[in-house]
Design a protein that fits this description.
Blueprint lengths: L1 H18 L27 E19 L2 E18 L5 E7 L9 E5 L11
Antiparallel strand pairs: 1-2, 2-3, 3-4
Length: 122
């Protein structure tokens, strides 16, 4: 009975892992003769860009069942834009992902002043 329940649980785990697919948001590699890829990203017109960073992280998904394993490599690519609103001087961090299919940021982080009492050691 115990062996049967282990087999059922293993089958369920294998089926669940087979149903998940990795999200790859790193732009595809280009051949040496391919044209330059260009992307337009939306930034509010009253923002002044102070810094931009592109970061890509790759990871390997490994699955296995009954001693057979397989793996695939995916990645996540992010464009981080540090900007200041011209009229107010307020600071923002705009995060973009999947720039081949999405022009708007996935997150907008607004930096604001906080009382020193909220900060560690304050």
């Amino acid at each position: 009975m115990r062996r049967w329940s282990t087999l059922v649980l293993s089958s369920i785990a294998a089926a669940a892992s087979a149903c998940t697919t990795s999200v790859n948001t790193v732009p595809e590699p280009l051949s040496p003769t391919a044209s330059v890829q260009r992307y337009d990203l939306d930034i509010p017109s009253d923002f002044e860009i102070k810094a931009i960073d592109f970061t890509a992280t790759s990871f390997t998904d490994v699955t296995g069942f009954n001693g057979i394993t397989s793996s695939s490599t995916s990645g996540r690519g992010f464009v981080k834009v540090y900007a200041v609103q011209r009229g107010t001087g307020e600071q923002y961090l705009l995060l973009y992902e999947d720039i081949a299919r999405r022009r708007q940021p996935i997150q907008v982080i607004h930096f604001r002043s906080a009382p020193d009492a909220l900060l560690p050691g304050g």
